[in-house]
Amino acid sequence: MEAAVRAERGGAALEVEARRRPSAPAEVPEPATVIARGERVYLRTLTPGDLRHLAAWADDPFLERMVGSDFLRTYRRLYDGDAAFFEAALADPSQVAFIVMADDGRLAPVGLVRLFNIHLSEGYAFLETVIADRTCIRKGCGVEAGKLMCAYGLDVLSLRRIEAKVYEYNFLSINSLKRNGFRQEGVLRQAGFQGGQHCDVIVFGILREELEAQRRKEAHPERFHFPFIAEPREG
What we know:
By secondary structure, this protein is of the alpha+beta class. It has helices spanning 11-20, 51-58, 61-66, 70-78, 84-91, 141-155, 171-179, 208-216, and strands at residues 34-37, 41-44, 96-102, 111-119, 124-131, 161-167, 183-194, 197-207. Helix 2 (51-58) crosses helix 4. It starts with 10 loop residues before the first helix and ends in a 19-residue tail after the last helix.
C-alpha cells in the first residue's frame, strides 16, 4: 500500500518524493509450521519476519492497555527490537508462543497466543491471547485461538490446569475465557496498573476434565486434538 506522506509545511514536496519511491513489496510469508487449524484461525510457528509485527504490537497503546503482554514488553524494553529475541523466545522452556493467522487468505498475522510460566511437573501454565488486528475483534478469532492453544496444552504438554489473568475492564477477554469454559476463581485487588491508575486483575482457571468436556461440544472436535493432521487445502 503506497504511503501518503503529508506535512503542514512543505507537504507538497514531501508528497512528490513519496510518489517517486517504489511501493512497499507485498508481504511474502516465510516458511513456518502450521500447528493447528480451526474454522476461523490457524496457529503457526514464529519466524524471524514476525519480529516487525511484534514491534508494531508492542508499541500499540490499545494492546498495552487491554492485555499488557509481558511477551511484547520484553521484546520492546529488554531486547529493544533486537533479532536475538527470536532465538531467545524459541529457547525459553517456560513458554510456547504461536502466531495467530486468520484463515481467510490474508498473509499478515492477526495476533499471537502463548502458554507461559509452564510448570510441567505440577501440570499447569498460564494462557495469553493477543488479537492485534482490529478487524478480527468480536469475530471469534481470540476464542478459537485460545481453544487451540488449550488443546495443545492438554495433548502435547499434558497440563491438568490452565490459568489466565485479565484486567477488570477487558470485557472482551473475560467473555472469551467464559466461552471457552474458564471459571472465575478470584480477584487480585489493585494488582494491575494502567493509565496511571491501579485496577483489579481477575483470575480465571480451567481443569483438564473441564477442557475435555468443552472439546466434546465442538462440531468438529478433531480440530482440537493433537497430533494435528493437516487437511488438504483446495487450490
